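User: Predict the structure for this protein chain, please.
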Amino acid sequence: MAHQNDPAVIQRLMRTKGRWAIVGLSNNEWRAAYDVSLTVRDKLGMDIIPINQAGVDVHGEKGYKALADIPADQQPIDVVECFVNSQRVGAVVDQAIAVGAKAVWLQLGVIDEDAAQRAKDAGLDVVMDECPDRVIHRTGL
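Assistant: Here is the predicted structure, written as structure tokens:
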């Protein structure tokens, strides 16, 4: 059965202050993650943790190469937002489960039904094929 986003889960994740690890966030201003991460931090008031292949800092926030590299004092991770393609997101979801994240958010166009089911089976909230910016524009959050 195909995953269906629960509007109540989306609203709760976006309204509850927390820590979002943003996988695929780099200093490339042309990538969607660059601007969406600012929305998550500045409009929604979340703490953000950039996760990228180089482990570079973004928006003045300390970056890491992998979710497992995030120090214990920055745990738990409330949401792992995934800006990686659908073919790679399953591994990110598995890492989110392994580090005890509470939710995974697969960005607009990122779809992996099996990974979403693994996350649900592990007790994580799942949002798939959606964007916080789009939710804000649609709902006025």
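The chain has five helices and five strands.
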